[in-house]
Amino acid sequence: MCGIAGIIYRDGSRDIGREMTAMLQSMKHRGPDSTGYALFGPPSKTVVMRYKLADANDERDYEFAERLERNRAEVESRLGQLGARVIEVEEETDYALRATIEYDGDLKTLADYVEDVPNCEVLSLGHSLEIVKDLGDAETVSKQYDLDEFNGTHAIGHVRMATESDVDISGAHPYWAYPFADVAVVHNGQLTNYFQWRRRLERSGHRFQSECDSEVIAVYLAEKMSEGLDLEAAMRQSLDELDGVFTYICVTEDALGVAKDEMAAKPLVLYESDDLVALASEEIAIRAIIDHEIDTYDPYEGEVLVWKR
Amino acid sequence: MEAVGERKITYDARGLVEPDATVPNVSEVDGATAVFDAAKLTTRQINLELKNLLYERSITDVTVKNPGAKHSLGVGILTRCKITFEGSLGYFGCGVIDGPEVHITGRVGWSACENMMSGVVVIEGNAGSLTGAALRGGDLVVKGRAGARSGIDQKGGLILTMGSVGSMTGFMMQRGRQIICGDAGPGLGDSMYDGTIYVAGKVKALGIDCVPGEWTDADTEYIDRKFGIYGLGSPPEFQKFVCGKKLYNYDNLEPSERKLVL
Description:
The complex is a heterodimer.
Chain A: E1 3-9, H1 16-26, E2 34-40, E3 47-52, H2 64-81, E4 85-91, E5 96-102, H3 107-115, E6 121-126, E7 129-135, H4 138-145, E8 154-160, E9 175-176, E10 184-191, H5 194-203, H6 214-226, H7 231-241, E11 244-251, E12 255-260, E13 269-272, E14 276-280, H8 283-287, E15 304-308
Antiparallel strand pairs in A: 1-8, 1-14, 2-7, 2-8, 3-5, 3-6, 4-5, 9-10, 10-11, 11-12, 12-15, 13-14
Chain B: H1 13-17, E1 28-30, E2 33-37, H2 43-56, E3 61-65, E4 82-86, E5 98-104, E6 118-123, E7 139-142, E8 155-161, E9 175-180, E10 184-188, E11 196-199, E12 203-206, E13 210-212, H3 217-229, E14 239-243, H4 255-261
Parallel strand pairs in B: 2-3, 3-4, 4-5, 5-6, 6-7, 7-8, 8-9, 9-11, 10-12
Antiparallel strand pairs in B: 1-2, 11-14, 13-14
């Protein structure tokens, strides 16, 4: 089933971490397997890399801790080898880390080299995007990663009920549009031409970390945008080229867009005011962050809507 | 590295179902009317309170404040009564009801009034998809716009939408009527067996085996009467759509009627 949510402020930063947690927690019944956030803080010159070295439900076998320690050191040494200056590495959990680095080279080279470390997956890479995802409901993940303090302008989130792939961090949304900085996607639905697009995109050099169909949307959009389309045009083209049922939300460094398939098979409720746009699979999630009576509507089939911050 | 160890993933499906909830008894009762605030109550508590008032305490007019877009509110009410929701309902609002006269001042989510048997539901705001799915009888009035597949599998009654409707409206409709004052999305009346759809605005595309129908005085009378009952002013001009009966392989008799014919 899955639940998705998005929020964008047009007049500056707010507590988007806390608000997204409230939205996702109220939709817990739509997907209790895992929860994920893509949060946009203020843009900075440095690059933030979120990565994980193991999964929450991995077997804690003999040597697990040593292996983590070894892989962690290897990631940092590889960053150094590529000429990135590591300013800080924060340990969110024992297996999920957040590195702030100074780096102006090619992001794909960096991501590829880092992901060659065993069990390592880069969750997000960018100047303001940070993707946090883990198993459990929104409050569990928010507490674990201390998201209440996160300040920013826009965010998307996802609660997952796994249907097409495994319950682990790789299968959790949002998906970073590897290797394009600051693009992420959450998706509710199923894609039926996933393998065609995955093979097509793999042939043009992209890698896929998960078996999840939603990952293809993120890479597809980023590929189209790198060819020169803007977000809205790329999303419109996706309605023709991606088959299946979907409502997805895509965020870039300065915009948030939503697209619905031609059957309007998956829900989306939209609330717009002067300073805020909030959207979610259920109205109850929007009401979780707004304390007055609101007027909302459901966009129709084949609609693409984009807002700038 | 102390934290390395098992991490429990806590998810208690039973907690969402609330099998142990009891009637909260929070209403202010005045004669045959009652009011209660649902802001701090769970779905199950709200429905228990409603049923307790209507079935056990002979209340005939209930007002529910702050329903807060919770799902499955006001479901399975099988008695004649008046219910007012001051706010919005989530998914499956007022499903499987038989008799009540419901007024919702906000909007509703997906599958409102699913399988409604009789009664009246008036929604001041918008409605989600699957509004009036498998409706059997009664009137459902949406003053805003409705989502996709309104009146899917409709088997009777009326769905009157003042705004537009989404794709596949009246999909596999078998009986009853829909009045749409705005535009209709693609696939209107797709694979319908019977029933009538009136549309005042533009139709993006007709569904398979849905064709324009011949207007009769009975249509004018019906629409005028319904607009009068709900105080909706003078009706706009409508086009009528019916089943083309090309896909049609079934008779349209209820089992009891078929017995009479045989």
